[in-house]
Design the sequence.
């Protein structure tokens, strides 16, 4: 059997990470990867570190603690900016998973179909990575680098997710397409955040998941949306050419062509919803 | 690590490895096996418990995190005196528990909701239960039970002779809602050794074993093919083609190669890469075309052309008759491997008792298991005792051996109890599947819409081993013309070996695949002639007095026309509603479809007797010795209702002994929808026989009324009263046997394959998102001719559960070896996917059946996919030729159709 450490303070945890440990909190990705296998690796259980849990805000934005669960996010009093992330939270597994699974776990697991990634990309989120020696912040878009691969170093812990405050009114939304109602891995998903001023889109941030190894922002579409009036015509701005960053694969859930086809539909619906 | 926490309101301490899962600790260390493990991956929700007042999967919680926390399990719901909560009572009253394996998880998920919202609405209930999978019920009765949890219900207690036809609560219900029912993994002796099976990662390969000495030194045993006394098993007496452990060659991914036997943690700690096996993979035969290619290698050396079996039905002259048809429709339809996905993985244990073997395992067929294990062990059948545990869903998948042979061999050899529980991926990889089919169908009718001819060829991928392949290939030609009078018939069934998983028995034995084809043909012919699709079917429905394709004159109980008549108002209303909806623009289009089916009850042209005994002991205990296994469908209750009425005592006085081959007679297997009809008739005869004994002893007439009070049996015959003291005249025993009358089929498939048939028709209303290709089934109305509903709640449960599986077959279920070996890549319907279902029970009495009853286990599933696919066609114009109709397949077909139309 391996070592099991359960510090209550972050500093202790970072001290432990001087050598490699597998980080455990909600267990919703940890245990499914170990079905029928003896668990024998060294484990760092961060679930008892109070400072890693919960949501706070200040003038610059919000801090989502690493071990905040999806249910805690759903229960939190947050502005419409977070509607998209909350919609995604409701689609993570069933309520059992939402009650246990954590935001940071979803990011560190780095599945191409992670429900939390597109809405957090659309929120321009940053991740705060701490090690014994330093703390650094990375945009989420550069933190996840591939299928199940991140920039997290073996001595680092993802301690928080930061969402910047927008200077104007902002709205967000999220849509997920799966082959059944609950407990479903996305075929594709899309998230949008629109910052609004004088009934026009000031800034748009659009992200698509499960259509590439890492969820992608769609910068050309974002530019096309900027300055547009906030009405039903917004949806018509979406063009197939905007999907250039996406490189979907064919798998049991759908073909690559299908994914590109329905992303356009999802994006149009998403924009229609945010605009209404 | 030591943790102290509150368990069902009681302080407990636990000590062990901190990464231990809460589910395992509850079950293995704290004695609470009510929390079930279905996947160990958070995919099924069977292990749902309440942790600090919130539902979580106990399989995902580390014991190291449990200190100072509070967990509640299903065992903690009822009061200390055993009084059930209103929620548990509601589950019983609504028939919300079938096999019961998901019930603890469902109850805890619902409990979480009800603790927050006393009167939730349907949407809230679905949200709360969305994380728990049920494979039996179709969820309807579970949702109803949660919605009605505040409503006090009074249980029905029928008096003597009044049980049949009532909605009594299932006799084995209380243990299912309290977590006390014991399934395969719940009964392991503490001192049992465990097996971990090493399985093939390749679909086709040769292999050589290296030096097993080091492993053997660490473990109690490492079993190989050489350790198996007779290394072959299979359903048919003449086809024992599947090895217990592969001998140098594997034919499908997941095939068992080695069995590691030892202390549980020791065998689990050994990784596959630590086992010295040298693999030489070969290109596998995937699919029918690969298996039938001229240069295809043979999967089984003694089966030329990879052909397992073929045969068909010929009546009249179909080829010529097509020439005089006013309308002809043709099409080819393909289906995929479908996984049973019972929520209870295979589990059980064996021990040697002197010179006998005793096997406790989850199964659908104790006597077949007994004979098969005797054959593998080279023991006489009497030397094997099968003690079935509760069965957490089967659907045909637990008709084949799973854990039995390896636990038997190891226990015999080591003289120790030996246990084996499959993991979910192992269960999915190793077990049988529904046969993938390619059905080519051609149907023709005259100008009035009367069917004239049909020609159907159903080709099946039977996988690596025969299993139930012959049964499928035999049954389908009999059913492939559909439940219609067709004078000129040519049908053919054939099954080919491939390197897919063994395709076996799965609810319907190939008939659901064939129904997709014949029902599409009915729609196309009706549309060609401009005849309403329901009326077209009504015009052709088999009725009493008609002759089937096998030349069998149906004497009684052919209620398809009545089913269609009952559906007619629903059909018209659905069409009106859909038309109104579709007048609006938008990406959502609705459609209505209809599917019909017939289904022969029991084995095809083969004897399949059931024998039942009913005894009255000297102490007054009334026992039905019932060999018919209840795998959730409710046969324990059905048999008790039938036998109690036949005897003339209240059903509440009947105790059951079920399944144990030492204590009950052979009542055949729980398959082919046969238990109510065949075993039910035997139970009826056993009750009548016991009654005759009693009446003789009391010298009373046939109409005498019985009552039982302790050991005193009172017989009231008109004005006369006889009292029998069972302590003096007992024990008394009645016996009944029934074997449905059939005849063999000749070379043209002519004969009487079944004594009776179930009939059914279902209507589906769907909404298709034409831009995404998704299908939402909005409503299903199901009309089933069941002969007589012995217990309408249980009958509805079978229909609703069948519909959920039919929906899965149509829209989402596709087993791909190596790719969908878990319950998040392999999708079965959740509570949010199964629509509102209305059941219309038609009772066209079958004189051979108990109180007129037939079977309903499989029929619920058969018409569903055709009805859904017909509705999709109505909504979109797309005729699905391949299922599951996944969103990408439907969307691509919609785009292609638009291209053709443009």
Sequence:
């Amino acid at each position: 059997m391996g070592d099991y450490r359960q510090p209550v303070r972050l500093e202790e945890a970072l001290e432990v990470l001087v050598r490699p440990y597998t980080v455990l909190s909600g267990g919703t990705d940890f245990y499914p990867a170990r079905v029928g296998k003896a668990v024998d690796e060294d484990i760092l259980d961060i679930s008892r570190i109070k400072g890693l849990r919960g949501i706070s805000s200040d003038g610059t934005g919000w801090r989502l603690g690493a071990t905040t669960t999806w249910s805690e996010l759903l229960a939190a009093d947050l502005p419409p900016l977070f509607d998209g992330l909350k919609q995604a939270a409701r689609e993570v597994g069933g309520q059992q998973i939402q009650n246990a699974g954590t935001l940071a776990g979803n990011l560190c697991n780095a599945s191409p179909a992670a429900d939390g990634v597109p809405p957090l990309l659309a929120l321009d989120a940053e991740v705060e990575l701490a090690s014994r020696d330093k703390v650094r912040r990375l945009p989420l878009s550069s933190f996840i680098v591939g299928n199940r691969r991140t920039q997290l170093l073996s001595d680092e812990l993802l301690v928080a997710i930061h969402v910047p405050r927008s200077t104007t009114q902002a709205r967000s939304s999220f849509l997920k397409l799966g082959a059944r109602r609950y407990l479903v891995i996305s075929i594709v998903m899309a998230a949008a955040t629109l910052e609004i001023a004088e009934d026009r889109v000031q800034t748009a941030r659009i992200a698509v998941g499960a259509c590439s190894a890492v969820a992608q922002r769609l910068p050309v579409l974002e530019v096309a949306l900027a300055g547009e009036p906030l009405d039903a015509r917004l949806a018509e701005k979406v063009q197939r050419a905007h999907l250039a960053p996406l490189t979907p694969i064919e798998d049991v859930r759908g073909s690559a062509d299908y994914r590109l086809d329905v992303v356009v539909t999802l994006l149009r619906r998403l924009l229609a919803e945010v605009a209404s | 690590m030591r943790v102290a926490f509150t368990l069902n309101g009681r302080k407990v301490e636990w000590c062990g490895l901190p990464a231990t899962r809460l589910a395992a600790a509850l079950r293995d260390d704290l004695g609470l096996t009510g929390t079930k493990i279905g996947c160990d991956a958070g995919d099924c929700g069977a292990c749902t418990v309440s942790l600090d007042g919130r539902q979580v999967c106990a399989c995902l919680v580390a014991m190291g995190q449990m200190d100072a926390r509070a967990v509640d399990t299903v065992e903690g719901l009822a009061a200390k005196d055993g009084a059930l909560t209103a929620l548990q009572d509601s589950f019983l009253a609504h028939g919300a528990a079938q096999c019961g394996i998901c019930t603890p998880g469902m109850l805890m998920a619902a409990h979480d909701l009800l603790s927050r919202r006393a009167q939730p609405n349907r949407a809230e209930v679905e949200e709360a239960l969305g994380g728990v999978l049920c494979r039996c019920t179709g969820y309807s009765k579970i949702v109803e039970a949660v919605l009605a949890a505040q409503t006090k219900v009074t249980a029905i207690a029928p008096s003597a002779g009044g049980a049949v036809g009532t909605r009594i609560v299932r006799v084995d219900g209380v243990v299912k809602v309290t977590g006390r029912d014991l399934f395969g993994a719940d009964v392991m002796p503490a001192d049992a050794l465990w097996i971990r099976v090493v399985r093939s990662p390749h679909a086709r390969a040769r292999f050589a074993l290296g030096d097993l000495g080091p492993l053997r030194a660490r473990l109690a045993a490492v079993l190989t093919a050489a350790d198996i006394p007779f290394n072959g098993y299979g359903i048919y007496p003449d086809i024992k083609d599947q090895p217990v452990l592969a001998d140098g060659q594997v034919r499908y991914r997941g095939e068992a190669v080695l069995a590691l036997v030892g202390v549980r943690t020791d065998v689990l700690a050994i990784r596959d890469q630590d086992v010295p096996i040298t693999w030489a993979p070969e290109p596998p035969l995937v699919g029918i075309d690969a298996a039938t290619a001229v240069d295809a290698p043979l999967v089984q050396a003694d089966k030329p052309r990879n052909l397992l079996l073929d045969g068909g039905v010929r009546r009249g002259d179909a080829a010529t008759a097509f020439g005089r048809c006013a309308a002809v429709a043709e099409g080819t339809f393909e289906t995929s491997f479908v996984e049973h996905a019972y929520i209870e993985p295979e589990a059980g244990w064996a021990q040697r008792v002197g010179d006998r073997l005793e096997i406790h395992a989850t199964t659908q067929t104790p006597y077949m298991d007994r004979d098969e294990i005797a054959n593998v062990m080279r023991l006489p059948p009497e030397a094997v005792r099968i003690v079935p545990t509760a069965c957490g869903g089967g659907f045909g998948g637990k008709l084949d051996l799973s854990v039995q042979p390896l636990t038997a061999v190891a226990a015999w050899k080591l003289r120790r109890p030996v246990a084996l529980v499959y993991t979910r991926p192992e269960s999915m990889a190793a077990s049988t599947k529904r046969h993938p089919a390619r059905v080519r169908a051609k149907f023709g009718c005259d100008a009035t819409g009367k069917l004239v001819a049909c020609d159907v060829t159903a080709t099946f991928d039977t996988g690596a081993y025969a299993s139930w392949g012959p049964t499928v290939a035999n049954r389908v030609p009999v059913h492939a013309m559909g439940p219609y009078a067709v004078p000129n018939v040519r049908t053919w069934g054939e099954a080919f070996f491939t390197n897919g998983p063994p395709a076996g028995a799965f609810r319907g034995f190939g008939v659901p695949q064939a129904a997709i084809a014949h029902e599409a043909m009915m729609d196309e012919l009706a549309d060609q002639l401009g005849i309403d699709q329901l009326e077209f079917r009504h015009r052709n429905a088999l009725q009493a007095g008609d002759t089937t394709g096998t030349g069998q004159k149906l004497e009684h109980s052919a209620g398809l026309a009545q089913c269609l008549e009952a559906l007619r108002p629903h059909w018209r209303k659905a069409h009106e509603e859909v038309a109104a909806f579709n007048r609006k623009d938008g990406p959502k289009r609705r459609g209505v479809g209809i599917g019909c089916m017939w289904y022969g009850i029991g084995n095809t042209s083969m004897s399949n007797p059931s024998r039942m005994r009913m005894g009255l002991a000297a102490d007054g205990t009334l026992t039905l010795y019932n060999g018919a296994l209840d795998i959730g469908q409710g046969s324990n209750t059905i048999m008790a209702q039938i036998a109690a009425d036949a005897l003339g005592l209240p059903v509440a006085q009947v105790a059951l002994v079920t399944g144990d081959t030492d204590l009950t007679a052979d009542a055949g297997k729980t398959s082919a929808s046969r238990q109510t009809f065949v075993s039910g008739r035997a139970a009826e005869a056993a009750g009548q026989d016991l009654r005759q004994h009693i009446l003789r002893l009391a010298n009373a007439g046939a109409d005498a009324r019985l009552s039982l009070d302790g050991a005193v049996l009172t017989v009231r015959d008109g004005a006369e009263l006889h009292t029998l003291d069972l302590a003096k005249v007992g024990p008394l025993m009645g016996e009944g046997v029934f074997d449905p009358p059939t005849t063999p089929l000749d070379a043209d498939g002519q004969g009487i394959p079944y004594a009776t048939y179930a009939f059914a028709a279902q209507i589906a209303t769907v909404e298709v998102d034409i831009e995404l290709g998704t299908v939402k089934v909005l409503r299903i109305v199901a009309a089933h001719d069941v002969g007589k509903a012995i217990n309408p709640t249980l009958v509805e449960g079978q229909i609703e559960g069948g519909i959920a599986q039919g929906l899965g077959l149509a829209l989402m279920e596709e087993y791909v070896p190596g790719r969908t070996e878990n319950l998040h890549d392999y999708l079965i319907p959740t509570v949010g996917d199964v629509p509102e279902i209305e059941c219309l029970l038609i009772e066209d009495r079958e004189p051979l059946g108990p109180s007129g009853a037939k079977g309903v286990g499989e029929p619920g599933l058969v018409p569903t996919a055709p009805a859904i696919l017909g509705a999709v066609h109505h909504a979109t114009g797309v005729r699905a030729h391949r299922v599951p109709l996944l969103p990408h397949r439907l969307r691509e077909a919609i785009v292609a159709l638009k291209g053709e139309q443009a």
Remarks:
- Chain B touches chain A through 67 residues (CB under 8 Å).
- The first strand of chain B starts at residue 2 and ends at 7.
- DSSP finds 23 helices and 33 strands in chain B.
